[in-house]
Amino acid sequence: MKKDKLHIALVGNPNSGKSSIFNCLTGLHQQVGNFPGVTVDKKSGISVLSPSLSAEIIDLPGSYSLYPKRLDEWVGYKVLLQQDADIKADVVVAVADASNLKRNLLFCTQIIDLKVPVVIALTMMDLASRKGIKIDIPALERELGVPVVAVNPRKNKGVAQLKKAIEQTAQQLYQAPVRDFIDNKALAEAPVAAVKKHLLHLSDYAAIHYLINHESFSLSPQLQDSIEQIEVDNNFNPTKTQAEEILQRYGRIRQLMQQTVAEPDPLQKTLFTEKLDNLLLHKVWGYIILAVVLFLLFQSVFWLAQYPMDWIELGFAKISQSLSSSMPDNRWTDLLINGVIAGLSGILVFVPQIMILFGLITLLEDTGYMARISFLSDRLMRSVGLNGKSVMPMISGFACAVPAIMSARNIENRKERLLTILITPLMSCSARLPVYTILIALVIPQTYLFGFLGVQGLVMMGLYLLGLVMALMVAWVAKWFIHIKEKSFFILELPTYRSPRWNNVLPTMINKARIFILNAGKIIMIISLLLWGLSSFGPGNSMSKVTERYEILKQQPGANTDQLNHEYQTARLEASYAGILGKKIEPAIAPLGFDWKIGVALITSFAAREVFVGTMATLYSVGDDEGSLLLKEKMKAAVRADGKPVFSLATGLSLMIFYVFAMQCMSTLAVVKRETRSWKWPLIQLLYMTGLAYLLSFIVYQLFK
């Protein structure tokens, strides 16, 4: 029966050009979600194969073979074995890299032996040609028994032929090969025959996979027991069977390659890629170049994102100002402006960093350099329980932990991915800069060492390095407590250097921003409204008493209205639930050198660390129009009940240390919850970071007071 819409599964090895084909087939008609039960991205899109037929293309995670080891590989595996309840593929498009055909054919021939409708999309033909590799495509098609189409998605060549092959395969104009690529009966004839009595539709090769992985399939208890009994009766050995299959398959692939592929002498002159790797992976120059690249990446995210972030904040400020002047002064207006609008601002202000970071990472991945970064840093990362793929999320955390944690998805090992997520917020993000800046200006003298090294600058650099060193130490300790028994193999293929796919950058940036806004944004908005409520309401009639008292003061002759307004806002905040909470926690934070006003700032800055400065401005009755210098003067002049300054060297250093280590960021917790699909890990993260911040702040304060 002919369908009006097909479902196409796109599979292939990592770095085989699968994403390029997906983007070429679907264009801008893409959407990103998550596969049910896992945090692996699910990309799908619509492709028009002919005027009367469209197809939904599902881009499955990359895999090297049909034996899954990682969570993302299991996703594609279940689709191919028809064990996914949501995705039923009419045709499988297997993408193969022509320049590494032998390795890619392992996965392709396994899929062919499942007897599902398959089309082979051959990519990297230009690279294969430069290597001197010549492929006889008609002969390859004849040997495999399925359509083989050469495609160059970068130049949009072969796409029409690929669409036609997909349509014809769906219409059963191409039949699955009758013969198997290998001798499956020689591997396990008796148990295979026994399984096929229960599942008549299975191919011999699919029956082998049911014998190996049936425990992970959605089968009835009776069928599970039957397959288990078949294994016992036939002494079925999954490991031995898998090893024999791979040996058989590579033997057949070697014969096929001899008949269809002409390869050059391996001693020929090395390619440009290999020469460039001699420099970029050099034991000295490689690390110097890596440091420069990472520095430029970090600075680019910071510099480029600053302008749109300022524009977003300015835009929301103007919206708030306009609404404030045009709407009546009541509780609903306050909720709209300081609750909803402020919450939206807190969500959208992160979007430029997310988009720019993922755009730059996409460019690094496309060029092939990202794999080199992971390779160079693997030794250091592995010593603390991570691996080379943890580097980019950690470096990205210097800009913002939110997109950095999202970028940890490319770490296959669950334990290493979780460790990376847990320590990334220890990187000093750009939101900490306003806190560091004002505190350093308050308590660190503007002096120079050796006449040119500024002490304030050295303290700032020290805070950043402190977060990095502590992150590695925490990872080393935490690896002993996270009991995920999943072996870590850092097997990395170094892809060929290529020019970036510029048309792939914008869709990636938009998709990542959309994921953040629609998922983490919900939690951010809820907590923003909660914080507004805590700051706007107080017990009983405490708030109205404050209002009445200041209304009387304003009516007195010669009253300074501006000054009274500032004092009024401070008094309201002190009488609110947030202020009362600050007073309540003062005994707990007093050993750190903090007073109740700093306590309120700690509470309000949980929405975003940079809120600390704004809270201090309100508490010390400094209007925004008076400038930050006046705020510094007021904070410097603040004294305790005994006449000692509030912001002494000890208190300032203690507060800086606290902000280096404390979580103090609800958006980060929201993203961690989304990525781990549990509140367990964000709560652990909040507790260990807060405990670490408290302990080290206490030590610093006691040392310097």
Q: Which terms would index this structure?
A:
7-stranded mixed beta sheet, 8% strand, single chain, alpha/beta
Secondary-structure topology with pairs:
Elements: E1 5-12, H1 18-26, E2 30-34, E3 41-50, E4 53-59, H2 71-80, E5 91-97, H3 101-113, E6 118-123, H4 125-130, E7 134-135, H5 137-144, E8 148-150, H6 159-170, H7 184-198, H8 204-213, H9 221-233, H10 238-260, E9 261-262, H11 272-280, H12 285-326, H13 331-348, H14 351-367, H15 369-383, H16 391-396, H17 401-406, H18 414-423, H19 433-443, E10 448-449, E11 453-454, H20 455-478, H21 502-536, H22 542-554, H23 561-575, H24 577-589, H25 596-604, H26 611-619, H27 628-637, H28 649-661, H29 666-676, H30 680-704
Parallel strand pairs: 1-4, 1-5, 5-6, 6-8
Antiparallel strand pairs: 2-3, 3-4, 7-9, 10-11
Describe what is shown at a glance.
With 705 residues, the protein is of the alpha/beta class. It has 30 helices and eleven strands. Helix 14 runs antiparallel to helix 21 and helix 19 runs antiparallel to helix 28.
Explain how this protein is built.
This protein is of the alpha/beta class and 705 residues long. Among the domains are: 5-170, Rossmann fold; 184-262, no CATH class. The chain contains 30 helices and eleven strands. Strand 10 (448-449) and strand 11 (453-454) form a beta hairpin. Helix 3 crosses helix 10 and helix 18 packs antiparallel against helix 20 (455-478). The longest helix has 42 residues, at 285-326. The model is unreliable at 621-629 (pLDDT under 50).
